[in-house]
Specification:
alpha/beta; single chain; 491 residues; 3-stranded mixed beta sheet; N-(1-d-carboxylethyl)-l-norvaline Dehydrogenase, domain 2; 13 strands; Rossmann fold; 5-stranded parallel beta sheet
Length: 491
């Protein structure tokens, strides 16, 4: 069977198979965007929006960059950077071939080319999806971590940066020297006020390099965004499904759900694609939408991931089908998260109901283990902000505290059957050492983990209501297990 690429796509019978393809001549497309972190999330979301608008706006093609591993480039290069987006729900799978990514550069072996591309006059937007840990910041404060190994390296070797902030700052330095205006930096990561966070980090790194660079970077725009689409990791079974539909081999198709949302702060001094014509919402303030997603979708997702994994559920759809977990998640959103949000009750209730339906999508094989990754970076945004707001008003936090306790139980690295958990986290070794030292004592374990200020700051460890709630839940998780603990809470 032929491999997906420009030639095979032109000769294949994809139209007869109901596969959607681009309605533009790819040879006429030129790049206007560089995207750092060309992973599944970007390819399921922003790249699809751009694909929709290139027919009428051909100067906004995307150059992608792999920052850590060349696997994306290696998979897509033989396909001329084409790939299949498979949209799945209970009714079946609809495939479309995305053509908006023109090239993918490997930051490890093509670092200079990547920086020079970002610094070229054609590039007006540098966007990024590098996950929370890619910002080299302190999640508890949102400030640049100047002791982060990558930042230490980038300050010592500014022309050969390894971090996303370092790459951005070095490209901006080249533009400054060449007399060009700074490109717009658009964060697409799940961070509160992600544009403000990105701006704060990049500006601080520029300040540490030189006053002239700092003054130049201070003029750059950092619009915030909110992106919402569930994107499970692609499996070999997914590849077979896509191959059967498109009748071509695709090394890395992307699986996703029908729902997609993109809210963007409209601040692009060098111009932008007409995102509003392809379904995005341009606003003056993204923060209410960000908070809604972080506290309702992401907070629920993380809580479900830890409790579901511990209870033996491999997929989110299996976990939410458990009546006790469904009731817990519904209550977490309705009783604890929604009262902290500035949107109308009707808007929040509609979003909640939509989320519960999306979580239950049986065709979307979203692994609890995948969502559980990098919890130390995610908890501050997804759960702890809501907890702080409720504690300040003397309100209950029982469901939220259970989510935190479930994370603590998960990072011990041993599941309820005594098997090892593959904990993927920047602080995994440190967290495991704390757990081993606690020897399954819930008070010692909670105290040890709450003392990690990079996650919990200095306030939560000393809050007796929070500590008591978390410790109580952790004791139950260790002694009775996830299923019994959830059942007891929602009874």
């Amino acid at each position: 069977m032929s491999r997906l690429n420009t030639a095979s796509l032109a000769s294949a019978s994809v139209h007869q198979r109901g596969v959607s393809v681009a309605n533009y001549d790819r040879a006429t497309i030129s790049p206007g965007i560089v995207h750092l972190g060309i992973g599944a999330f970007h390819r399921a979301h922003m790249a699809a929006y751009v694909d929709d608008l290139l027919a009428l706006n051909p100067t906004w093609g995307i150059i992608g960059a792999s920052l850590r591993r060349p696997d994306t480039r290696d998979a897509l290069a033989p396909q001329d950077f084409l790939y299949t987006l498979a949209i799945r729900d209970a009714s079946g799978t609809h495939c479309r071939v995305i053509s908006s990514i023109l090239d993918v550069l490997d930051a490890n072996t093509q670092r200079r080319q990547l920086i020079e591309t970002m610094a070229s006059s054609a590039i007006r937007i540098v966007s990024l999806t590098v996950t929370e840990k890619g910002y080299c910041h302190d999640p508890a404060t949102g400030e640049l971590d100047q002791n982060h190994p990558d930042i230490v390296h980038d300050l010592a070797h500014p022309e050969a940066p390894v971090s996303a902030p370092g790459l951005i700052v070095q490209a901006l330095e080249l533009r400054r020297k060449n007399g060009l205006a700074p490109f717009t930096v658009m964060s697409c990561d799940n961070l509160p006020s992600n544009g403000k966070t990105a701006g704060r980090i990049v500006r601080r790194l520029a300040e540490l390099r030189s006053p002239e660079l700092a003054a130049y970077v201070a003029t750059a725009a950092f619009p915030s965004t909110m992106i919402d689409r569930i994107v499970p990791a692609t499996t070999d079974a997914d590849r077979e499904i896509v191959k059967d539909i498109i009748d071509l081999e695709d090394a890395w198709p992307i699986m996703t759900e029908p729902f997609t949302q993109w809210v963007i702060e409209d601040h692009f001094p060098l111009g932008r694609p007409p995102f509003e014509t392809v379904g995005a919402e341009l606003v003056t303030d993204v923060e209410p939408f960000e908070l809604m997603k972080l506290r309702m979708l992401n907070g629920s997702h993380s809580t479900m991931a830890y409790l579901g994994y511990l209870a033996g559920y491999q997929y989110v759809s299996e976990a939410i089908a458990d009546p006790a977990i469904h009731k817990l998640v519904n209550g977490l959103m309705t009783e604890e998260a929604m009262p902290t949000l500035p949107m109308s009750r009707a808007t929040l209730e509609a979003y909640r109901d939509q989320l519960l339906a999306r979580f239950a999508n049986p065709a979307l094989k979203h692994r609890t283990w995948q969502i559980a990754m990098d919890g130390s970076q995610k908890l501050p945004q997804r759960l702890l902000g809501t907890i702080r707001d409720r504690l300040a008003k003397g309100q209950g936090i029982q469901r939220l505290a259970l989510g935190v306790a479930a994370w603590m139980r998960y990072v011990t690295g041993i599941d309820e059957q005594g098997n090892a958990i593959d904990v993927k986290d920047p602080h995994a070794a440190r967290l495991r050492a704390i757990a081993d030292a606690a020897a399954r004592d819930p008070e010692k374990l909670a105290a040890g983990l709450l003392a990690v200020t990079e996650i919990f700051g200095t306030d939560l460890a000393g809050n007796s209501a929070f500590r008591t709630a978390v410790t109580k839940h952790l004791k139950s998780l260790l002694e009775s297990g996830s299923a019994a603990t959830v059942a007891a809470l929602v009874a």
